[in-house]
Amino acid sequence: MALRARKFEEAKRLSTSNLELAWWVFMRVSGVLLVFLVLGHLYWRAVLFNFHHDLTYDVVAQNLSSVTWKFYNWLLLFLSMMHGTNGLRYIMDDYIRSPRARIWTKLIVYTLVFMITVFGTIALWGWNYAPAA
Fold it and tell me: What CATH number has the domain bearing residue 115?
C-alpha cells in the first residue's frame, strides 16, 4: 500500500519498512530535481538555443558529444523512469486486488522500464556522436 504522508515524521510513523520510507523520500527529492532538470532542458534548447529552427544532425551530435550533456540527459532519463515507475507501483498496489495479477503486472512493467532505461543509456553512451562529414 502506498505511503500517503505529508511530513517526514508522519511518513516515518506510517511506513511499514525502511525501503518504503526511502521510496517516499526519493519521490519528493526526484520530483524537485526533475522540475529543475526539465525546465533547464527546455530553457537551454528552446530559449537560448532556438532549437526548433536550428535542429540539424550536426547540432544534436555536437551536444551529445559532450560528456556533460550526456550525463544531464541520462540523469533526466533515469530519474523520470524511476519516479514514474514508483508512481505506477503505487497505482498498481491500490487498484490491482489480485496478488497474482499484481505480480504479473509489476513483472511486465518493471521489465519494460528496465529495457527502456538500458536502451536509452546505450543510445546516449554507446555511440560516438560525431558531426556529419
Answer: 1.20.1300.10
Q: What gap in Å lies between CA 33 and CA 12, rounded to an integer?
A: 22
Kindly give the residue spans of alpha helices, DSSP state H, lying in 51-95: 57-64, 67-95
What's 43's DSSP letter? I
**Terminal alpha carbon distance of the chain:** 55
Residues 6 or more apart in contact with residue 126 via CB below 8 angstroms: none
Is 1 part of a structural domain of the chain? no
Quick check: pTM over 0.85?
Answer: no
Grid-cell match 527502456, residue found: 116
Q: Which residue has the cell 504522508?
A: 5
Residue 131: predicted pLDDT: 67
pLDDT higher than 60, residue 1: no
Is 133 within a domain? no
pLDDT, tens digit, 9 for 90 and up, residues 38-77: 999 888 877 776 666 677 777 778 888 889 989 999 999 9
Cβ proximity of 15 and 24 under 8 Å: yes
